[in-house]
């Protein structure tokens, strides 16, 4: 009997105890029950046990509890009760039915322990987990998400990632993240990215990736390293947003700007050519026209038939000269207006051979040495008729202005440039040109730099016009008494 009393004392001290009859009417509570419920024993004795019902549990839950104990079985579970002041507390509860001789419960002993703090912690944890789940849901709905381990192996992707990369989840999990590498970014860029996140820092930037079907897409990317207890990344979470449309727009604007600059440059060039042409027309036609006008005046004033005949004889060569000038101008206009001319694939060896055929007699007569080196570029995309005209003019000048005291050497060679351009050069060891004096005049029409009966000053003008009509460049390097080299840059030759 003494032991039972000791057990009851120990139970009362350690637990929250209440005893009800078979109808749930409270007939005993210990001090711990009063403390947690904030009722006095007098306020509780004789009351229905529902006095502490918080209303939190469903009817089915309460029904199951009563059915269990009414059938003489022990019920265990967690209950959320309400104290007298309306505050809530949780108790881990065991209800033991005391049975009579007929095995029917005549009272129930409820033994409880306070688990309010634990339940609050669980509820707080549940709330945090719910919040995290909500954030994850929002992130998955709004962003492209992938998670990799510290080696870059994909461990998670969301639906948006699969949609933009056109890979399935199964195809991505376990793969190296480089599966979507487009190869667009330089190695230094990728190295900087990995160095940043490997050091535990967040990386932000724009990436161009490649989808399964080979198409590319741009993503604005934030990569967050998750760190372990020693501050080392154990995984990386990459959060992206699709900026393909914006980047394509930017690239289109960049192309349009480049095109506009190119067009502005061409327009500027055309304007310069137009001004030059107007000056040429003004200058070159005026002199023969004045000459003709003066001769016509003499003709009108002369009464001497012989003198009139002499004047008429003088007029003819002036008219012929005027016709030559006029034909040259017409030819140059044709080049300037010939904007739709197509580039041909020119086998340079064949083209040079054809042009040299026209100079065969002079080459033999002057014992000219023609050296050809086309190792770096044997073909050029350019209008065939322009190329033949350019080579004819440059070779003709090289022979025409050869040095009188040495064998003419003409070197024709090509050089490949890094920007898909090819440089064609024609060099000679002839008289050379003083570029200090004539640098700005060298390609002007009717400009000659040495006396020669066939010198008209039209060949270099036409050559420059043909080169620039195809957006090429021409320039000269020369030393008086040493020789000249004319260099032509042909662009976009990597076709």
Explain this structure to me?
- With 495 residues, the chain is α+β, with helices and mostly antiparallel strands.
- It is 46% helix and 25% strand.
- α9 runs antiparallel to α10, α11 crosses α13 and α13 runs antiparallel to α15.
Short description:
This protein is of the alpha+beta class. The protein has 15 helices and 17 strands. Helix content is 46%, strand content 25%.
Characteristics of this structure?
alpha+beta, 15 helices
Shape: rod-shaped
- Average predicted confidence as pLDDT: 88
Largest sheet: 5 strands, antiparallel
Rg over alpha carbons: 50 Å
Number of H/I helices: 15
Spatially, the strands of the biggest sheet line up as 2-1-5-4-3
Strand content: 15-25%
Strands, count: 17
Q: How much helical structure, as a percent, in the residues?
A: 40-55%
The unreliable regions are: none
Give the class from helix and strand content and strand pairing.
alpha+beta
Instruction: State the end-to-end distance.
Output: 109 Å
